[in-house]
Amino acid sequence: MPLLAGCSVEEAIRFGWPVGITPEATQMRHLWTWAAIAALVVGVITWGAMFWAVIFHRKRRGDDESVPRQTQYNLPVEIVFTVIPTVIVAVLFGFTVAVQQYVDKDVPADMRVNVTGFQWNWAFSYPDEKTPDGKAVETIGTAQTIPLLVLPTNTSIEFTIASNDVIHSFYVPEFLFKRDVFPMPEKNDTDNVFVIDRIEQEGAFVGRCAELCGTYHASMNFEVRALNPQLYARYMDLRTQNNPQTGVPYSAQEALASLNCGQWCAPNAITTSPFTGRGQQYAPLPQASGN
């Protein structure tokens, strides 16, 4: 089937798992691949034993009509059937714990980003970057604009996530994991901070809310825009200045447009198809006032 579909071996052994853009995503993909291969091996052995029993131990003409030879209380067989599954489960458990600890590690990062979900949009702020009026650089989605989360490549990033109302879920498929966004995480006993080692390639990557959160849940998307560190530094330098044409700090769209660096600097979302603009697909969402 992989040959008929034109798939490479690498694509085939991913078993449908997407290609990630972070080291954490790569580790999770490796766990998925080897777990699927182990499951297939166990399945082939099990199917083989079943077919072997059906073919070679079926009743034949002339067989004695008495009760066939029984194999219960066969100690070697019982030991094998107990030890092998235990070893398989233990190995899979060990690898799962190792990957989970790597993904959920709590280590210092090069930069911080605060993510706030609200019905039905997103707000992203950079607490270590200040505008001329002393406020943190922030991007807030509106009823007409899909928010852009601009991040540097090859930089460790700490995300702090929270919700202003109901439970949402911060999901970038290329990061290959979801994070539930709870209101008042400190009271819900949830860990709302996570770190990624780095984003390994430039590009535009769709982000979504992966938790049913209300009427316009389906349109609650955003876009991660990954820029190389030099380009990101220029972007953030603009975000911390006032736009001379407007007299207020540059927005994400204005800063990207000013960089004039090709498709990665497009001022509007380019990966959230078919939701190219909220007003084109849904009735206008509530404005993000107070967020």
From TrEMBL:
Main location: membrane
Domain Cytochrome oxidase subunit II copper A binding: 108-238
InterPro entries registered for this protein in UniProt: CcO_II (IPR045187), CcO_II-like_C (IPR002429), Copper_CuA (IPR001505), Cupredoxin (IPR008972), Cyt_c_oxidase_su2 (IPR014222), Cyt_c_oxidase_su2_TM_sf (IPR036257)
Membrane topology recorded in Swiss-Prot or TrEMBL: Multi-pass membrane protein
SUPFAM superfamilies linked: Cupredoxins (SSF49503), Cytochrome c oxidase subunit II-like, transmembrane region (SSF81464)
Membrane-spanning parts: 31-56, 77-99
Keywords assigned by UniProt, alphabetized: Copper, Electron transport, Membrane, Metal-binding, Respiratory chain, Translocase, Transmembrane, Transmembrane helix, Transport
Name of the featured protein: cytochrome-c oxidase
Organism: Pseudonocardia xishanensis
